[in-house]
Write a structure and sequence with these properties.
Layout lengths: L2 H13 L9 E2 L12 E9 L2 E10 L2 E7 L14 E2 L4 E5 L4 E6 L4 E6 L5 E11 L2 E11 L4 E8 L5 E9 L5 E13 L14 E2 L17 E4 L2
Parallel strand pairs: 8-14
Antiparallel strand pairs: 1-9, 2-3, 2-13, 3-4, 3-15, 4-6, 5-15, 6-7, 7-8, 9-10, 10-11, 11-12, 12-13
Length: about 220
Amino acid sequence: MGILARSIVLASLVAALPASGAMATEQGEEGFSYQGPPYTAVQRTRSAGMETVQRVFVMPGRRRLEMQAPPAGTDGSLPAGAVSMMPGVVIEREDLGVQWVLFPQMRAYMEQPHHRPRIRKTLEGEETVGGRRLRRYRYEMETGEGKVTGTLWEDARGIPHRMVQVTPMPGGTTLKTEIVWERIQVGEVDEKLFELPAGYRPFPAGMPMLPGQMAPPGMGMQPSP
């Protein structure tokens, strides 16, 4: 998994956590990670000098993330500096304990177990961010390379609005990731979005995932302006 993809996955796991209250507590085993109302949003991630844009659909126990590509040229090519290297859709089914990674161009998918990490999340106070009064949390999460730390701002419903995370990387370096959720719309979400599409087959075993060959439209990564 690429550096940027890894940071997105770790940050997304934290963003789904329920509010823990004023004291630091470890994530419990009861209930779903996210327990607020269904919503959709545009998720903008900046890390390692690159930016990705994802469309997210969330409800308790279920989440869908769709990667969005930068505009292609008249010949269908991506802009200079853009890279197409990640799957187009990720569906997380916490209620089923599985995660599906979809490759729309191939009508194929990969199935992986869905694990809930142990994260400590502490309420630090409230701040006004982008004109909204939000709760600010400090969090810590252990990984194979070390401790991930960060700050998360979310509203009273538990919907995230901004996150800044520092992830340890091999070699003793760190990676800073910032995520902003825009165009948040609270309301009913079609449950079919969280189902495995009809006609999709398991990803062919042993077939390499080469950048630009299998990644579908909607997988662009581009440098920040």
